From TrEMBL:
<keyword id="KW-1278">Translocase</keyword>
<feature type="transmembrane region" description="Helical">
    <location>
        <begin position="444"/>
        <end position="464"/>
    </location>
</feature>
<dbReference type="GO" id="GO:0008137">
    <property type="term" value="F:NADH dehydrogenase (ubiquinone) activity"/>
</dbReference>
<feature type="transmembrane region" description="Helical">
    <location>
        <begin position="27"/>
        <end position="50"/>
    </location>
</feature>
<comment type="similarity">
    <text>Belongs to the complex I subunit 2 family.</text>
</comment>
<feature type="transmembrane region" description="Helical">
    <location>
        <begin position="272"/>
        <end position="295"/>
    </location>
</feature>
<feature type="transmembrane region" description="Helical">
    <location>
        <begin position="191"/>
        <end position="218"/>
    </location>
</feature>
<feature type="transmembrane region" description="Helical">
    <location>
        <begin position="107"/>
        <end position="126"/>
    </location>
</feature>
<keyword id="KW-0874">Quinone</keyword>
<dbReference type="InterPro" id="IPR001750">
    <property type="entry name" value="ND/Mrp_TM"/>
</dbReference>
<dbReference type="Pfam" id="PF00361">
    <property type="entry name" value="Proton_antipo_M"/>
</dbReference>
<dbReference type="GO" id="GO:0005886">
    <property type="term" value="C:plasma membrane"/>
</dbReference>
<comment type="subunit">
    <text>NDH-1 is composed of 14 different subunits. Subunits NuoA, H, J, K, L, M, N constitute the membrane sector of the complex.</text>
</comment>
<dbReference type="GO" id="GO:0012505">
    <property type="term" value="C:endomembrane system"/>
</dbReference>
<feature type="transmembrane region" description="Helical">
    <location>
        <begin position="408"/>
        <end position="432"/>
    </location>
</feature>
<keyword id="KW-0813">Transport</keyword>
<keyword id="KW-1133">Transmembrane helix</keyword>
């Protein structure tokens, strides 16, 4: 039995030896996404039975379910479990015939997905109530999308990968438009149409790759592509490029980024935070899996392609962020949207290095940067959500003198921005940039390292301008103008809800701990993920 066993051979094997294709399910391995999925269905049913005054309990049930899913990762910390395997294939290919593998790569990205969803849930508890969104539908969609995000990094065949990617995406469309206003509807429609187009292109690519390689399992597919007939080589290469399109869309890599700024602006702030971290991590995991496992024979091709995408993505994101005007509505969210695009470029650099035979651990560098980015970016969005409660337009100018009004929030946002910029005291941000930069240099991608260094310098401007606003005092009016002007009613200070305060505190503490003990992230970089 070889790694390139065809469906007809599997059917013959099932007739001759039915036990070869029958196995027990490893419930411990699949527990993290399973808990989120069961909780999603339970909350949807409970929404039908609970009276209106009890609906806030659904949010806390979602928080508890995501916390339980995170705890389910602890028994998997050794990274040695697999299930849904073709027994004879898995025995000869080191889990190559398994559809679900809980290795170290899976655990890191499941931690990002479920942890990001948990922080999003804390951000959303008050938002669902204040913006009068349907509670049952919101929590069902959030948990459903988180299920797909946790399933995707564990997937080891193309069919499961595509299904997981769509499970991430379909609920996200509805989450964006759940507020039911003009901006939300427009953002959801643009997100939906763009995603459907990218998925159609990706499915076409998968069909080409399957025709050439003869398998859906990623490890077996690599062997099949390596021995594909010469007349199918060009078809397989085109299929590999088209397959990457769907995942590049989720990461918002240029030129598949155009949906992102308007989507973030029209979505509720917690949903924008979720898309910027969890959805992006799912797409990044998909790119890492299909390139390093399935498309190994074409490493130099996709390595160059990812390097070009990385350079274009970080450049376009940073240049567009520079153009954001501080007095336009929702400019704070839009700036974070363009910053998210630029950060996606940095995340793609180690994956490009993997295509050039980098001897280190480029996947570890990507996972470490993604983990750091998730913590600090969610921290920035948490403060933006808090400010948005009293400043509905959420402009950058609304953050002027935030330190005098909310010192803790200003310090948390300032530290998150410095981490994103890669400046002290945000040591963890500096460390993340160095890890990615080193991956490019070690792989011989000197030109990409230069582009990255230039972009880091460009990004310093808008991060520092926003940070400076937090500590800049409000402009005092001239005495004559003050005497003539009618006194304007000052907005009442709203006490920050406890779940929102918890989200700000957790992300701030996480960023500080990682800055004081970067060896926690070093363990990810030094661990062989596959």
């Amino acid at each position: 039995m070889t790694a390139t066993t065809t469906p007809h051979q599997l059917a013959d094997l099932a007739v001759a030896n039915p036990g070869a294709l029958i196995q027990s399910v490893d419930w411990v391995a699949i527990a993290p996404p399973l808990i989120a999925a069961v909780a999603a269905l339970g909350i949807l049913v409970a929404d039908l039975l609970l009276p209106a005054r009890r609906k806030p309990l659904l949010g806390w049930a979602a928080v508890a379910a995501l916390a339980l899913a995170l705890l389910a990762l602890i028994p998997l910390r050794h990274g040695d479990r697999a299930t849904f395997c073709l027994k004879t294939v898995a025995a000869t290919t080191d889990n190559g015939g398994c559809s679900y593998v809980a290795d170290h790569f899976t655990l890191v990205f499941q931690l990002i997905a479920l942890g990001g969803a948990l922080l999003t849930a804390l951000l959303s508890v008050h938002t669902v109530d204040e913006q009068r969104m349907p509670a049952g539908e919101y929590w069902f969609l959030l948990l459903g999308s988180a299920t797909g995000a946790a399933l995707l990094p564990a997937s080891r065949d193309l069919a499961t990968l595509i299904i997981a990617l769509e499970v991430v995406s379909l609920p996200a469309f509805a989450l964006v438009g759940l507020r039911r206003d003009r901006l939300g509807g427009e953002a959801a429609l643009k997100f939906f149409l763009s995603s459907v187009t990218a998925t159609a292109v990706m499915l076409l690519g998968v069909s080409f790759v399957y025709a050439a390689g003869g398998s859906l399992h990623l490890a077996a597919l690599a062997d099949g592509l390596d021995h594909a007939p010469a007349q199918l080589r060009h078809l397989a290469q085109a299929g590999a490029a088209l397959t990457l399109v769907g995942f590049a869309f989720k990461v918002a890599a240029v030129p598949f980024h155009f949906w992102l700024p308007d989507t973030y602006t029209g979505a509720p702030v917690p949903v924008a935070a979720y898309l910027s971290v969890v959805s992006k991590a799912a797409g990044l995991a998909g790119i890492a899996l299909v390139t390093t496992l399935a498309f190994r024979p074409y490493a130099h091709t996709w390595g160059l392609l990812l390097a070009i995408l990385a350079a274009a993505t970080m450049t376009v994101g940073n240049v567009a962020a520079l153009r954001q005007r501080p007095d336009t509505p929702r400019s704070a969210v839009r700036l974070l949207a363009w910053s998210s695009i630029a950060q996606a470029g940095y995340l793609l650099v180690p994956l490009a290095a993997a295509g050039y035979g980098h001897d280190g651990n480029p996947l570890g560098a990507t996972a470490a940067y993604a983990l750091i980015y998730a913590v600090v970016n969610l921290g920035a969005f948490a403060v933006v959500a808090a400010v948005g409660r009293t400043a509905a337009e959420n402009r950058l100018d609304d953050y002027r003198a935030l330190f005098s009004r909310r010192p803790a929030s200003a310090l948390a946002l300032g530290f998150a921005l410095l981490c994103l910029a890669g400046l002290p005291p945000g040591v963890v941000g500096v460390f993340a940039k160095v890890v990615v930069f080193r991956a490019a240099v070690d792989a011989g991608l000197g030109w990409l390292a230069v582009v990255m260094a230039a972009n880091v310098v460009v990004a310093l401007y808008y991060y520092l301008v926003w940070t400076a606003k937090l500590f800049t005092p409000q402009a005092t009016p001239q005495p004559q103008a003050q005497a003539q002007a009618q006194p304007e009613p000052q907005p009442q200070a709203h006490r920050m809800p406890a779940p929102l305060s918890a989200a700000v505190a957790l992300t701030a503490v996480g960023a500080v701990v990682l800055s004081l003990a970067p060896q926690l992230v070093l363990q990810v970089v030094s661990t062989t993920l596959f």
